[in-house]
Specification:
single chain; 947 residues; mainly beta; seven-stranded antiparallel β-sheet; 10 helices; 37% strand
């Protein structure tokens, strides 16, 4: 009996070894042991004696329906049972003598006939289970799998569940997070724990995804979807569990915003409350939050929630941080506000549901166009929903178009000559993207249409008009000529938009650096196509990666030139023109940072080289980030993932005159424009109408120095009326860039009169203002904003008084001065219409004025670099250079509390403190933050796209 037990133990080891090495069960079709498979050298050996020393027959081994093996050693059938052998049976069932087998439970014939159970190790047990289910094959590494089938691979004493993509090409299904992949398509077959991450290289860029369960992966960066949809989620759960697809970062001259996990955080200039602070500080109410020094999460318009069983009242509780708050998909900003796009949900639940894709804005907005805004409010810190894009979506169904009143979707009431409100045909519009330049917003719908809102400066509206005074508060589609777009872009420091169409052709509209203006989306090349994920926005030009993997940039008017300094394998890149020198940085496919020496070596605030010690600190930090410290799938990588060059564009000095004090200090001009020897200031009381109140302004002034009444142009000598002032900024600002903004008031109906702006003796503007029904011209600069009545015949019709807002960039002269001259004139004998119209009527009838003069002297020669390291949730941001207020100082830990007189001013700064030093001396540049070395920016640990 002891010899039998020894043989059973040996057989058990052989069976386990065979299963482990072959992934199969050594049995015949009758479920008995196939001795030929085991009686070989690797298992039992060729001379193994399979005779049972008790029964003197061959040992019988059978397999049950679960592929468990039983050795019938004591008896083969119940009839063989003999009570006189009980002492032997007791020995046989004793566990003391066994390690690899389990004896029968007791010595009854019912148990003895079952035999001893071969004890499988855990892997052999798993193999037996897989084979029993007969649903999935097991292959050895040397064997070829079946295409498009799941299978198990038995390798290195492990059973690995895989998907066979093609014969000989497979991917492991259950992986340990975080997962790293070179192919997005492989992600569809991989499973990890719910909420765990994967980092996938799609094209030349890395993206982060998280696992939602049910074989569903969701992009948590800018990555494209895997085509998987989980339909087993309710509306409420969709909203609660939604994580946005994008993380946007905007850095501007005096602040910025970031979109992270659906929430928007802003800092810097809080004008119009756009940085999220609505009122004074709670600790010191004497401090106004003009500048915010740490990221603040923006509040979003609150909606009550219908859970299906009850209505959750969130509005009355002012619960802005509620879990049902809008989680945004895309975000943009300019100096007057922040705007964002809510997520678009589109799925089937008994019927096709579609909702979201709305526009929300804060800052300078009004009740007429946005929800939940008081009629007395013209600015707000709360992101509020735009009425136009919200129209028709309340039923969560994409309905067919309808005929509605113009005012039904937000905006003013518009009537015809009979007093009937005009009608328009409206369709629901679902937005997916947004970009902004100064004064203009562009949004993209899911149907590939671009809509713009704002002013038409430099053709920003893209509607095909060169009228720079158009103010479009109701969105209009750009002049697209039927082109379908799939992404939109905007440059940072000029009013230039870009868009890529469904065929990967690139279009631009707006202002070019050389002064050329495109008034509608214009194709830059009919022969080159571009990668939609390879469009990089910069200060004043686009950098584009072609489908040929070459990098191109916009130059001149709309020409493209190849950027030879950036290799085709680069995953991120940026350019900056320093006068005639093209500077660049890029990250190669191994995640290393390269580029112009200006950005990869230590520089002082003035741009000169640092000391040896500082240079060593800079290079050590950069070398550490550039070292091959990561290994994914057998390949070494450094740390950089995204990079961009920024122009600081800081306002160094500014003067603002609104004339509300009734004074026209240092202004001079035509004697006819003076009262008591000083340039006239006029006051007009607010009449309570909807038009813009005038209050106090420079004016109103005559068109000509002599009033000619209704005489034709041939009867007078041209004597323009003018006012002028020289702004002496100081020689230290010699030749600096300067921006002049002002409001021009055109009072009553102008005919062929001209308005002229001359800066430092150079004419920059000479505009006509012609009304409808004019015998010679029509609709020429007649798109101003309606003022309350100023002139004797002013009205809200063709004779209305209008405001036209101007913005002009030039440079101070060599003495740091700007001479500003505003003048008007009638026609010269070379002008069209010279013989046919009267003008220069009395001041009480036809006149002009100037208001809100704003002179901003800028520093545009300073730049800085920001770069992301890591991938997805492992991302970190580093910046270096003259960052100013573009980066919140509290996120750098470089603030010197000894330079800040109260703890409140650590978090907020007032206008008169905005250039006061807050940083340590080594990181200060005349009150602006200067990062001498690559500096970690705390709280920016997201995979940002630099907008």
């Amino acid at each position: 009996m002891k010899s039998l037990i020894q043989k059973e133990e040996y057989i058990s080891l052989a069976i386990n070894k065979y299963i482990l090495q072959t992934g199969t069960i050594p049995k015949k079709s009758d479920d008995t042991l196939d001795w030929e498979k085991l009686q070989v050298e690797d298992y039992l050996g060729v001379n193994f004696n399979k005779t049972n020393p008790v029964t003197l027959k061959d040992i019988v081994i059978t397999f049950d329906e679960k592929n468990s093996a039983f050795i019938k050693g004591a008896i083969e059938k119940e009839a063989d049972y003999k009570e006189e052998y009980n002492y032997l049976y007791n020995f046989y069932t004793n566990k003391v003598f066994r390690v690899n087998t389990i004896p029968p439970k007791n010595i009854t014939k019912t148990e003895l006939v079952k035999g001893s159970l071969v004890l499988y190790n855990s892997l052999q047990k798993e193999i037996a289970t897989v084979l029993t289910k007969n649903e999935t094959s097991i292959f050895l590494p040397s064997q070829t799998c079946n295409s498009a089938q799941y299978f198990y691979e038995l390798k290195n004493e492990k059973l690995i569940y895989k998907y066979c993509k093609t014969a000989g090409n497979s991917i492991e299904v259950y992986q340990k997070a975080p997962v790293y992949l070179d192919n997005l398509d492989d992600l569809a077959y991989i499973k990890v724990g719910i909420g765990e991450k994967a980092y996938v290289k799609d094209g030349n860029s890395w993206y982060e995804y998280y696992y939602e369960g049910n074989s569903t992966w969701i992009p948590s960066g800018t990555g494209r979807t895997t085509g998987q949809v989980n339909d087993e989620i309710s509306i409420g759960d969709r909203i609660l569990s939604y994580i946005p697809d994008a993380k946007d970062l905007l850095l501007r001259r005096d602040g910025g915003c970031m979109l992270a996990n659906g929430d928007i955080f802003c800092w810097g200039n809080n004008k119009y409350k756009k940085a999220g602070i609505a009122s004074y500080g709670q600790l010191d109410t004497s401090l106004t939050p003009d500048y915010v020094n740490t990221p603040v999460m923006l509040k979003v318009q609150i909606e009550n929630i219908d859970t299906g069983t009850e209505i959750l009242d969130l509005k009355t509780k002012n619960w802005y941080n509620n879990p049902y708050r809008i989680k945004f998909e895309k975000m943009a900003m300019n100096s007057s506000g922040v705007c964002a796009i809510s997520p678009l949900f589109n799925y089937f639940e008994g019927t096709q549901k579609k909702f979201g894709g709305d526009l929300y804005c804060n800052g300078q907005i009004t009740q007429l166009y946005f929800e939940n805004i008081s009629s007395t409010v013209s600015e707000t810190s709360i992101l509020s929903k735009n009425k136009f894009f919200a129209w028709g979506k309340s039923d969560q169904i994409d309905d067919s178009s309808k005929l509605i009143k113009i005012s039904d979707d937000g905006g003013p009431i518009v009537k015809d000559g009979s007093g009937n409100e005009l009608m328009i045909t409206r369709d629901e519009i679902y937005l997916i993207d947004i970009v902004m330049v100064e004064d203009t917003i562009a949004v993209l719908s899911d149907e590939g249409k671009i809509y713009t809102i704002g002013r038409n400066y430099k053709g920003g509206l893209g509607i095909g008009s060169n009228d720079k005074f158009i103010v479009q508060l109701t969105p209009e589609e750009v002049k697209s000529n039927g082109v379908i777009f799939k992404k939109i872009f905007a440059l940072r420091d000029i009013a230039m938009f870009g868009a890529i169409d469904s065929n990967n052709y690139f279009y631009i509209w707006g202002e070019r650096p050389n002064g050329t203006v495109y008034y509608e989306p214009t194709l830059v090349s009919s022969s080159l196509k571009f990668n939609p994920d390879g469009i990089f926005t910069n200060s004043k030009d686009f950098l584009l990666k072609g489908v040929d993997n070459s990098f191109y940039r916009t130059v001149g008017n709309k020409e493209l030139t190849k950027v030879e300094s950036i290799p085709s394998g680069a995953i991120s890149a940026s350019i900056y023109d320093d006068n005639s020198q093209e500077l660049y940085v890029y990250i190669n496919e191994s995640m290393q940072l390269f580029g112009s020496n200006n950005y990869l070596t230590c520089k002082t605030t003035s741009g000169t080289n640092c000391t040896t010690t500082d240079s060593k600190v800079f290079s050590t930090a950069l070398d550490e980030l550039n070292s091959f410290s990561n290994n994914f799938n057998g390949k070494d990588y450094a740390n950089f993932s995204n990079v961009s060059i920024y122009q600081l564009d800081t306002v160094k000095y500014e003067i603002f005159e609104d004339f509300e004090d009734g004074k026209s200090t240092d202004w001079d001009g035509s004697s006819i424009n003076k009262s008591s020897g000083k340039i006239r200031v006029t006051s007009v009381n607010d009449d309570g109408t909807d038009e813009i109140p005038v209050t106090k302004f420079l004016g109103n002034f005559n068109i000509e120095e002599v009033e000619y009444g209704s005489q034709p142009a041939t009867n007078y000598t041209n004597r323009p009326s003018y006012i002028e002032k020289t702004f002496s900024i100081g020689s230290s600002y010699a030749n600096n860039e300067v921006e002049l903004e002002f409001d021009f008031y055109e009072i009553d109906t102008w005919d062929f009169e001209r308005f002229t702006v001359t800066l430092n003796d150079v004419v920059f503007v000479e505009d006509n203002f012609i009304h409808d029904n004019h015998p010679y011209l029509s609709d020429v600069n007649d798109t101003g904003e309606s003022l309350q009545k100023v002139g004797s015949s002013g009205s809200y019709n063709n004779d209305n008084d209008e405001k036209y807002h101007y913005k002009i960039r030039t440079k101070l002269d060599s003495a740091g001065k700007l001479k500003v001259r505003f003048s008007t004139r009638g026609l010269k004998n070379t002008d069209y219409g010279y013989n046919g119209w009267s003008f220069a009527q009395s001041r009480g009838d036809e006149s002009w004025g100037i208001d809100n003069v704003h002179v901003k002297v800028k520093e545009t020669s300073k730049t800085f670099v920001c770069a992301m390291t890591g991938i997805g949730s492992q991302s970190q941001m580093y910046c270096w250079g003259n960052v100013g207020r573009s980066i919140p100082i509290l996120s750098t830990s470089l603030y010197d509390v000894s330079k800040i007189n109260t703890i409140n001013k650590l978090f907020i700064s007032q206008e008169n403190d905005k250039t006061s030093q807050m940083a340590f001396d080594n990181f200060d540049n005349n009150g602006n933050l200067f990062l001498k070395y690559p500096t970690y920016i705390g709280g920016f640990d997201y995979a940002f796209y630099f907008k």
